[in-house]
Amino acid sequence: MSEISCDDVLTDLERYVDGELDQSRSLALSEHLRGCRPCLEHADFRRRFKSVVRAKWGRQAPEELIERVARSIAETGSAGS
Fold it and tell me: How far apart are CA 78 and CA 81, in angstroms?
């Protein structure tokens, strides 16, 4: 597994999925995701979720939906720490 933790991945996951990380950090996350199924599942979920949001509401989901999803994710705990 990579040198970064699951908590590190979850912190940067949104920016990773959006392609907003620098190349070095993006490669580190990619390496971690190859060896960590829970984090990979989180990343895949985020990609699918963003795709559904874009299809239904355009670029940004309603704030209430974002808050509900964030609360739900927080309640499930961290990926695989």
Answer: 6
Q: How many structural domains compose the chain? A: 1
DSSP tag of 36? -
**H helical segments located in 1-81:** 6-17, 23-35, 37-57, 63-76
Residue 1 lies inside a defined structural domain of this protein: no
Share of the chain above pLDDT 90, in %: 37
Question: Would the pTM count as exceeding 0.70?
Answer: no
Per residue in 18-30, pLDDT tens? Answer: 889 999 999 999 9
